[in-house]
Specification:
The protein is of the alpha+beta class and 304 residues long. The protein has eleven helices and nine strands.
């Protein structure tokens, strides 16, 4: 049985399409199809029900796929251990990062990471916290930059920096002339991101608002049923006079470019950015080195 063919099986199961799976694996679709046919012949079962536009895992595939994932994960661990014995700061490093951080942090740290760790190929993967944690535990990521603490004994985390929240207001807002703004004063027309973003929960907590808002919508009269999937959408809605919000400090430049007025909070609030990895991760030194470069680059911005 070939480990490569097991990876092909997982790719087809994930993408539900031979063409997309082949592209993800970096091979041609005919090659992928041939190899899966050979695997089916070896196992003596049909793994996928093939249709003109999609493929669906059979019951046999569903029964086997958990074992396949475990086998591939163990093989990856063997490769990681061997790689770490050679040089933990060399090779591919798959780094997850949340969407409210990625576009503002990556331009600041990618150059310094390349300069400080030239043998380490950092590959960013942007997604929400829950999805990143799933990928981390499935060995699809080596580490993740999160704004929440590592949840579970199987994970370890290191705090890198604390990012303050700033009040973002339309220029003609009644609070725009203040030197500092109270969170309670913002709560009435506060806009937040849709469910699934950790920033949503942190903003609501900073303003003393827990639950009680419309599902996936907003807390105040101006929020209505808005469901913003990105911070840029949220900032544009605030610029249009639709409400107010809190923005993380690294997004301050983008918020100002959108024409928003930024003010510090009367009671400082923010979020701590951490690099999280599996507690058993054999290349811990790589995660710590990446985290060290990021913390150094942001040391003048804020400290944990």
């Amino acid at each position: 049985m070939n480990l490569r063919d097991l990876r092909y099986l997982l790719a087809v199961a994930e993408h539900g399409h031979f063409g997309r799976a082949a592209e993800a694996c970096g091979i041609s679709q005919p090659t992928l199809s041939v190899q899966l046919r050979k695997l089916e012949e070896l196992l003596g079962v049909t793994l996928f029900e093939r249709a003109s536009r999609s493929v669906v895992p059979t019951e046999a595939c569903e029964r086997l796929i958990g074992h396949v994932r475990s086998a591939v994960a163990e093989a990856d661990t063997i490769l990681d251990v061997a790689r770490s014995l050679r040089d933990p700061l060399a090779g591919r490093f798959r780094l997850g990062i949340i969407p409210t951080l990625a576009p503002y942090l990556l331009p600041l740290v990618f150059g310094p990471l390349r300069d400080a760790l030239p043998a380490l190929a950092v590959e960013p993967w942007e997604d929400q916290t829950a999805a990143l944690l799933d990928r981390l535990r499935a060995h699809d990521l080596d580490a993740a930059l999160l704004a929440t603490e590592a949840d579970g004994a199987d994970l370890a985390g290191l705090a890198l920096f604390t990012e303050p929240f700033l009040a973002a207001l339309p220029p003609d807002h009644r609070l725009a002339g203040r030197e500092a703004v109270s969170e309670a004063e913002l709560a009435g027309d506060m806009l937040v991101l849709s469910d699934g973003h950790c920033l949503r929960d942190q903003v609501l907590a900073a303003c003393g608002t827990q639950g009680g808002n419309q599902a996936g919508g907003q807390t105040g009269p101006l929020g209505g049923t808005l469901r913003a999937a990105s911070l840029s959408t949220l900032l544009n809605m605030v610029a249009a006079g639709y409400g107010t919000t809190l923005v993380p400090g690294l997004a301050a430049g983008v918020a100002q470019d959108a024409g928003l007025v930024l003010r510090p909070l009367s009671t400082p609030a923010g979020r701590t950015i951490r690099i999280v990895h599996r507690a058993s991760y054999p290349r811990r030194a790589a995660a710590e080195a990446v985290g060290g470069v990021i913390a150094s680059r942001l040391r003048h911005f804020a400290t944990p």
